[in-house]
Hints:
Elements: H1 12-26, E1 31-34, E2 42-44, H2 46-49, H3 52-71, H4 75-100, E3 109-112, H5 114-134, H6 138-158, H7 165-172, H8 174-208, H9 210-225, H10 228-245, H11 247-251, H12 259-283, H13 287-295, H14 300-330, H15 343-351, H16 355-384
Antiparallel strand pairs: 1-2, 1-3
Amino acid sequence: MHSSRSHIILDRLGSVIAVLISIALFAAPFATYRANRIVAGEGRMLTEALPTAGALGVTAVILCVALCAVLARAPVIRLAAAAAGLGAVFPALGWSAGFLTPAGNTFARVSPALGFWLLTLALALLAADALTRLRLGPLARLAALAVAAGAIAGLLLSGAWNDLSLLKEYANRADSFWREARQHLWLALGSMAAACLVGLPLGILAHRFRALRAAVLQVLSIVQTVPSIALFGILIAPLGYLAAHVPLAAALGIRGIGAAPAFIALFLYSLLPVVGNTVTGLSQVPPAVTDAARGMGLSRRQRLLEVELPLALPVILAGVRIVLVQNLGLATVAALIGGGGFGTFVFQGIGQTAIDLVLLGAVPTVALSFAAAVILDAMIDLAKGPSHDRD
């Protein structure tokens, strides 16, 4: 007679998350204290960065989250645990800044350290895993993104992080921050829009004419292999010559350095994904569909606009997604040639060895790239229609 035994099955990803949490809590500093913005910092463990009661409370919450990650299978429980963990860790970072900074000291700086970043990574992995298991539709994913953005905005507006070095850097550069944010978005979104205006018709022509397709894709592939900083440099000479000899170009703001070469370089980088995905999307339209449309009496133009392009739209949007995420990152490098954007803070911070100034440019860039990926992924799923089966 066999006795039934209940076995506890540990979640594999949850076990990795629990290990990350253990390292973050017990082996890595939670915050870094510096006497001023450029000197080397001293790491502070969670128990040193917060009052005793606060440190114990945060530790207890995070350990419960680790337990849920290892044992819980229900996606809703895992998502709630991740949210509770983030709800404890993020305010705790701002609390640590106020606790570690001496009263009246305006020079001291407190920054997130390895322990905070590991906790954020572990909790983000847990949240992403829960959302994946929930198999959310595109609109639900957009709603989840909006909730996350609202929570971060509420944290920043509450003033809970005002004593952090990152927010102090922002406070000293608030006007220039939003100016560079507009410039960064203009470079990324403007070059993407220009690439779509040129790339879509070019992709349609390349699909229609095989000889043109090979030549266009080969040239654009060569452009894609040129390193970004090299392409920026290559454009300086011809644009400088154009500005010097064509008054209209100079009047439009075209110069050898600045936003013009950055915009043109990003535009050139954007063409291959747009043209290539347009060709691929149109090539994947079933011949039976186009034959049926032809049999219904639709003209070639009508077949393109009413049948082929709508069916190819998900693939085309996948190319646009690649372009936008790529351009948001590459626009950072534009600051090296005076193009502006968030890269201005990144390179200023590197020059001053001020890591929080680097983060002031890097964090918004990463956040924008992540949001753009989520939004366009949702748009791709919506374009595929309700019959699309999400695996």
